[in-house]
User: Fold this.
Amino acid sequence: MNNVHKDGIKSDTGLQPIRPTLTEVTHQEIDLLNRYFSTKTILNVKLGCDEEARQVLQASLTDPPVRHAVSSLRALREDLEASRAGPASGVQQTPSYNYGLQQYSIALRGLASNLSSSGSYGLRSALLCCQIFISIEQVQGNFAAMAQHIIRGLRIMHEYRPRPEITAANKLIPAYHDQLPLLDVFIIKLFAAPCKFADPPATAGVHGTTLPVCSISPRQQPVEFRDLRTLAPNMRTELTRIAASTLKFLGKVSRVESVGNALRLQSEKAALLDSLESWLLNLELVQTEIGPPGSEPISVSFMRLFHVILKIVLLGALDSLPNLYAELRTENDRLQGVANSVNERLKGYRTWD
Assistant:
């Protein structure tokens, strides 16, 4: 019988869980978690989530749900890399995979317990765990569950206001919980990073229509993928540009100190929402050239996910529109619908050659 460490991991799996006895985190641990946040990094894509990784690891020293979530992500990612096969391969019942699921379950239960008592500690734990849960579901290829975590996390952010807001009466309200993790920034970084899995070998380094969050081998791309690249080579590039502008906008909102600046940011927000609407209209025009809805490339579905996420983030930032909650419900439903569709379409895909 294999030896078992005190936190339940079998010694022969080669995994080293985060130890609660540590008093600080190392650069090596930060780099590793930053890499594990997305499967894109398997091909050396840079996420730029070092600060998010540092926050998570620092919290894991004292927050058991976060610690278990990190251990889960590490185990599942190491299992993925060791097997060189994705969730659809059927080769899942390894010790590290089972340990990852066990730790995920423990994290979910612990988080539910934390949230039963009000306070900023529970909210911070929830958003940090949500960040890791998004990565856990992505590494498993479960985009429907990933979307659920995104929706719930962004809902928490909107409800507890980690940034200042301006009211309809032009009154600037300071952030309610200004120390909360900025989950929306993490999600945008995750989707905005290029995905080399989607780049055909002949066009390596071209990010015209790469998948925002993906794990599909280039050999599996359908014929329509090349058609989209030919008809609209800049769709992905434009969406990434809007994402970069959204990150800058969110940074300005966090630092806003006057009504005048807030009003100027309102105009910037409106322009970004208009850009998203124009992008979607252009995408629909391109799709009519490619073929019927059923022929949409999976890369387009991932871009749709990214588009809806950006819209949800922008709608919930800075000010509340008169029909904000109705709009957010509509966009949340749209996000979940696209994610469910992606899940169904990916069932027949392998994630490695």
Remarks:
- Residues 1-21, 85-90, 198-226 have pLDDT under 50 and may be disordered.
- The chain has two domains: 1-140, 168-353.
- The first strand starts at residue 165 and ends at 166.
- The radius of gyration is 21 Å.
